[in-house]
Design a protein that fits this description.
about 180 residues; 2 domains; binds zinc ion
Length: about 180
């Protein structure tokens, strides 16, 4: 969905839209969309400077970074963004980007706003680097692969025993 700036009126534009699965190019190795994406925002503008205030809501199907199990996570991302027309000149562009660095300002071509891209970005930004099924997830044992959420596997014990037997072996040699 694009919003043509030429078509904007003076009053705020209220957009409510539901994207079907596959209509939003959201891509992450450990998460995919599980439900349609609901977006609801108000766009105001001053000439070609835009201000967008709204939210994105959906449910993702995720894979836990620790235990590799699948889980669903609801995403509710609130956002407030400003967009300015992208300056043509690259040098000038760098200066402007520096100037706006702290201001959370994005750029667009000055002709139309790519809403799909904005929505996909907001979903991405709302996610942490690593997705875990729950904070207390214990993950998998790195030796036997058992899911430690189901209880301890015994590898830790074995490892202690192994270290101890090496020590005993060493002592025996010293005594000889
Ligand atoms: Zn987990
Ligand atoms: Zn184990």
């Amino acid at each position: 969905m694009f919003i043509e700036i030429e078509d904007l009126r003076d009053e705020p534009l209220h957009v409510r839209h539901t994207y079907g699965l596959g209509e939003i190019a959201f891509k992450r190795a450990d998460a995919v969309l599980a439900e349609p994406v609901l977006t609801d925002f108000i766009l105001t503008h001053k000439d070609r400077d835009l201000h967008v205030d709204g939210s994105v809501k959906t449910i993702l199907r995720c894979r836990c970074a620790r235990c590799a199990s699948e889980f669903r996570r609801e995403i509710v991302a609130r956002f407030e963004l400003s967009y300015a027309p992208h300056p043509g000149n690259i040098k000038e562009n760098e200066e402007i980007e520096l100037k706006y660095e702290d201001m959370d300002i994005g750029f667009y071509d000055g002709v139309r706003l790519d809403v799909d891209l904005m929505v996909a970005e907001q979903i991405e930004l709302s996610l942490p680097m690593k997705l875990v099924c729950r904070d207390e997830c214990r993950g998998l044992c790195y030796r036997c692969g058992r899911d430690l959420n189901d209880g301890p596997c015994g590898c830790a014990q074995e490892e202690r025993d192994a270290r101890l037997s090496v020590l005993l072996e060493f002592r025996k040699k010293m005594d000889e």
